Each structure stands twice: as C-alpha cells, then as structure tokens.
Amino acid sequence: xxxxxxxxxxxxxxxxxxxxxxxxxxxxxxxxxxxxxxxxxxxxxxxxxxxxxxxxxxxxxxxxxxxxxxxxxxxxxxxxxxxxxxxxxxxxxxxxxxxxxxxxxxxxxxxxxxxxxxxxxxxxxxxxxxxxxxxxxxxxxxxxxxxxxxxxxxxxxxxxxxxxxxxxxxxxxxxxxxxxxxxxxxxxxxxxxxxxxxxxxxxxxxxxxxxxxxxxxxxxxxxxxxxxxxxxxxxxxxxxxxxxxxxxxxxxxxxxxxxxxxxxxxxxxxxxxxxxxxxxxxxxxxxxxxxxxxxxxxxxxxxxxxxxxxxxxxxxxxxxxxxxxxxxxxxxxxxxxxxxxxxxxxxxxxxxxxxxxxxxxxxxxxxxxxxxxxxxxxxxxxxxxxxxxxxxxxxxxxxxxxxxxxxxxxxxxxxxxxxxxxxxxxxxxxxxxxxxxxxxxxxxxxxxxxxxxxxxxxxxxxxxxxxxxxxxxxxxxxxxxxxxxxxxxxxxxxxxxxxxxxxxxxxxxxxxxxxxxxxxxxxxxxxxxxxxxxxxxxxxxxxxxxxxxxxxxxxxxxxxxxxxxxxxxxxxxxxxxxxxxxxxxxxxxxxxxxxxxxxxxxxxx
Length: 605
Hints:
CheY-like_superfamily, elongated, coiled coil, HisK_dim/P_dom, 5-stranded parallel beta sheet, 4 domains, histidine kinase, Rossmann fold, Four Helix Bundle (Hemerythrin (Met), subunit A), 13% strand, phosphorelay sensor kinase activity
C-alpha cells in the first residue's frame, strides 16, 4: 500500500484530505507542523509527501529543504500545497526542492494525477532556472493576506461539500445531493469572486489606491448573496440529514459562519492589513540606523544563552560580541546549574545531551539551536525529531547567527505570552459558559411564562357566554395556512427560503421582481410580505412605497430583507413604509419571530 505523509496544520483541511486519500486506498500518516513532518519523513519512510507551506514551528519551505538535504529522505517526492493567492510561492517551493506543487482548494482528481506521476519511476529532469521573486508593493501584500484569510473557510466549504457529494454517488438521494451541489457551486463562486476582486496584479493595473472604506462595502455586497445560499441550504440539510453526514455538514456550517464573521468585519480587517503594509513600505533596511538595531528588543539582547560545545567553539565569542549574556559548558550537568533562555548545542556533542534536555521538566520547553557541519544533516534530522528548535550549518555569517538566536528567543517570549493569554481566554470561556447557562434558563422561563399567559387567555375566552353560544351552534371552521409573499430575484435563495417557510406551515407565493411583487400583493392578498431590497425592474423601496400608497394593500405588513453590507438600508426601508427588516444571511428563527410579531400587530389594528 502506498504511504503518503500529509503535513498540514489546519485540522479541518487535514481531516478532509486524509479521509479522501484513505478512500482511494492510500495509507496516510499526518504531521501538524514542519518539524514533525521532517521527523516523520525519516521514521515513517513515506512514498510521497504532501507539504503545506504555511506551517508553524518550521515552515514548508524549510521542512522541504531539510528532507531533501538528508540522504535517507532526499529521493522522496514532495508536492507543495500552496494557496493560489500567495505571490512567489511556486518559485520558493521549487527552489526549496519540491518536485511538484498544487493550489488550494485542492482539485482532488488533479492531485491524484500528480501523485500517480511522481510515483512512476522516471529519470530526474535537470532543474529549470527560476524567475526571481518580484518585489511586491505593500498594498498588494495587504490584499494577499486578506485574500488568504477569506479563502481558508471557503476551502473547508468546498472540500467537505465535494467529499459529501463523492460519498453520495452510490446513494439514491437525489434531492439531498442537489442541495449539496448548490452549496458546492456557491463555494466555488465565492472563491472566484475573492480571487478576482483581491487580485494584486489587477489592482496594480487599475492604478487606484483602494482604501478600506471603498473596497470593503463592494466586496461584502458581492460575497453575501452566495454566502446566504450556503448557510440557508446547509441549515436546510441539517434539519433532514442522515446522522452519519451531520459532522461534515456542521463543519461546512461552522466555516460559513466564520466566513460571515470575516465578511461583516471587512472594514477593520482591511484597515489593519493596510496599516501593517504601510509600515513595511516605510521601513528601508539600507537606511536603518546601526545604533537603532541594538534597541529593537532589550529583553532579547539581555537574554541568557548557554553554549554546550567543545572548549574551542567560536560561537561563544560571536554571541558575546553581540551583547548576549553567554555561558559555555562542555556537558549538560555543568551548564544547567542556573536558568537560561536559549541553549546552543554543537552537534559534535552527543545527541544524548539533547535527549537529556527534552526529558527534563524544567528544560523541555527551552529552545535549542543546533550547530552542524554540512555533512551532519542526518544528525540534524534526528535532533529536529527530538525537539530542537532550529539549526545552522557551518560556516555561517554572524548576521545569520544573530537572526536565528533572536528568532528562538522571540519564540520563548511568545510562549510565555501565550500561556498568559490562555489563562485569560479560559476565564473568558468560563464567563461565556455561565452566560449561556443563564440565557438558557431565562429562555425556558420566558417560554413557561408565555404558556401560562396563553392558558389564562384561553380560559377567559372559553368562560364567556359568546364563546359558549358559538361553540354549540357553529360548524367546524377549516383553518387555512397563512400566506406569505416572497419577493426575491435570486433563484437559490428564493428556493431555499420558500421550502423552509413551507416546512413551518406557511403558504408561499413568489415574485421575482418589484413590479411582480406589487401585482401579486393585489391579487393574492397575503398576510405578510418579505421584500428583498435589491430587485430588478422595480427595487424593493419603490415597490414598498407603491403598496403602502394603495388602500387595498397598505394594511399588509412588509419585512425588508437587506444585506448587512448596505449602510443606510435600515433607515431607507423603514422610511419607505416597511414594518420591519431583517439582514442576510437569513437567521430563520429570528425571521419567524418577526413574521409572528407583524401578524399580531396587523390583527390588533
């Protein structure tokens, strides 16, 4: 059986791709960061490696370089999994030693073809010269980062819906598959929209300085319609899904909610990314003062470093000259009498020293930087597997040593900060759990109170002489379902909302533009109207004004359905005569509550 090593830190993407590969008969081993990937490439001996590039601990480029530098793993083919949005990823991946690359979201058939090609024995082609990675302007980097953040939940939606469609091929459930196909196609539509609008090359050609307040509303407006479709159909399927499909559907729904949160906060996201990119553009390393360099982070400059090496090691002097507090020792016992922020370990010393460090509770989280000769890569791989943080090969420039040491020390600082914030987060979660419990109790009390009120009202009505008289003489009355007029031009959203309202006992009449909505309100006389605002022929505002100006329809309550993106929609809707409004994507329980409130208000008048 062919063994594949999948190195991916995103849990949902990892789960989805692992399960699809296993269905095709592959034995899949997983790693969640670059260092673990390097270690498992040596211990598990996979036939091929699928390497994500944006990884923690050790990124995909460095992990690939280490795999290709090790004689035991250098012949293992590596396919880089890279986001299409990241400029220069392809060149960096091939330069690092990757044999092939593929873009996310993964086209599974295409990926299987590349795996099959690399597993076939063939002559190793001579490497082609790579184009230099261009210098990317700051604004393009900001849009690339935003695009990457938005694409992550979409990859999950597309991947899991594709996987579910694949699983339903042999099942006789065409209606379920049809709705799932709509989710999949809407996910692909979202991806195309994001890749088209946030295309750095296109933005550069347009030569326009796109600010957050200009681009955010336009992007949000485009994304909300397909996102509404995904969330609506997903909730529809969750209500009728088979139990074995529920976890994957819930994964799609959670990712859609995550994406909605990002879309609703586009303004602040864009502003933050633009601000960081402007700081990058202002920074000029050629003019960066030499004195200022020492003041970057005093906590790092004053850190204590232990060098475990032979007596003549030059690393001690190099670090001392750079301002670090350094101690040198030839054995771990001599060195660990006091605490240190970083340990530099010469690979000529026994790897047992590293094992001792990582097995000791007080030192297992202290970063370890390995120093090695070019022919000692096998030992370096073992060291990374044992828990070493990073490595340097001799000879190395002093600037590179300084950068590596600073990176290791920053990692220590981040770990301390993370521990502090985790405590705060856990406390916040506890407050949220208590709040949820209290809200649940409050909702239960409200339901109980409402039932008591209705019971009292029913008792009072039954006891009246009028009720006794009509109940003894009147014939049974057949209750007809309440009629809702839905005015919506998007076919998928119209179909989804219509079916969900019908499940709750409403009769639904549909109109696809504002003019047809006015006409059907006159002919059908519905009890309530759901009016989309962005409509063809006649928009929702004008249609509402016509209905409220007509004596035959002015009594019908109208709920405007308005996208969250449209600033001022609420005010315009109410000013045009709407009785209430709701935002897209539709949250059905909230909408049903507003329909009931409008019906009660209409009856009381």
